[in-house]
Design goal:
With 299 residues, this protein is an alpha/beta fold. The protein is built from eight helices and 16 strands. The chain has two domains: 143 residues, Cytidine Deaminase, domain 2; 111 residues, AICAR transformylase, duplication domain (Cytidine Deaminase, domain 2). The longest helix has 14 residues. The protein starts with 6 loop residues before the first strand and ends in an 8-residue tail after the last strand.
């Protein structure tokens, strides 16, 4: 890894809190974007996280909603409007404000579903859509960089600590036939595999300990950073909607986690690894487990 240098871009109004000073700096190439608004520190954090997620689905209609680094809902749909409705449904209260990222040109119908609490980012806006956004006091960002190239703009993950500055490669690991392994007797249907991959792509962008419950290309519950309570929280949130859903975790789960999930009728799991005890339970209850062989933790 090369030595890092920071090139000043501009002073921000404040940091994550009003009493903190903050600046925007350049350490490598930055994405090409346009906006007429002054973006805050928290805006940039939210834009980054939301765009990271939709870049995983750049070739379909998709939406991600974030509040800062927290993901509140992600969905794919036949149209952007359909995807937005599904993403909002995951967490309707938190979805009232935050960043909303789209994989495709924003259309009139979808724009009408947004409100002044949203900051929107998309690959294109036509004049009619811009008129709607501005009339409703909705800020927007035009992303000129192709979504499929977005993840290539950051190669290093930097954390500054009193013990020293940690620099590591960004985890760009993807699923492949070499690490995607069904370890249970019951095998998944094509639709289940697609939901499984969707949930895993959302989960890998979450902070540890992350649990994502999903079905029909829609997140039903998202939890992170809760350690042993993450699965229980997700199950309590998803409730009856978890029937025949997929659960993705960035860490191996415990028997307690597994039991909580199957009590809510989760049918499939995608995990970095799993113990033989859990595999036996999965076979007993005809559940499906896929292992990836690697973790995707973000701290």
């Amino acid at each position: 890894m090369d030595n890092l240098t920071f090139e000043f871009i501009k002073q921000l109004e404040h940091g994550s809190n009003k009493q903190q000073m903050a600046t925007l700096n350049k350490t490598n190439d930055v994405v090409d974007y346009e906006t007429k608004y002054e973006l805050t520190y928290n805006d940039i954090i939210g834009l980054t996280k939301a765009t990271e997620i939709v870049s995983e689905f750049y070739d379909v209609k998709g939406v991600a909603i974030t509040k800062g680094s927290q993901v509140t809902g992600v969905a794919l749909g036949a149209t952007l409007s359909d995807a937005l409705i599904k993403a909002i449904d995951c967490n309707p209260v938190d979805a009232l404000t935050g960043v909303v990222a789209f994989t495709d040109s924003l259309d009139k119908k979808t724009a009408m579903q947004l409100n002044a609490g949203h900051l929107v980012i998309a690959p294109a806006f036509d004049d009619e859509v811009i008129s709607i956004l501005e009339k409703n006091s909705i800020r927007y960002v035009l992303l000129n960089t192709p979504l499929k190239d977005f993840k290539n703009y950051v190669d290093e993950d930097i954390t500054i600590t009193p013990f020293g500055t940690l620099v590591q490669e960004v985890n760009k690991t993807d699923l492949s036939k070499d690490n995607f392994k069904v370890v249970t007797k019951t095998k998944p249907q094509v639709e289940q595999i697609e939901d499984c991959i969707f949930a895993w792509k959302v989960e890998k962008k979450k902070k540890s300990n992350a649990i994502v419950v999903a079905k029909d290309f829609k997140t039903l519950a998202i939890s992170q950073g809760m350690q042993s309570q993450a699965t229980e929280f997700a199950m309590n949130y998803a409730c009856d909607t978890a029937k025949e859903s997929v659960l993705a975790s960035d860490l191996p789960i415990t028997i307690t986690d597994f039991n909580a999930a199957i009590q809510n009728r989760v049918s499939m799991f995608i995990l970095p690894g799993v113990t033989q005890d859990i595999i036996k339970l999965a076979d007993k209850y005809e559940k499906i487990i896929i292992t990836t062989g690697f973790t995707t933790q973000l701290y």
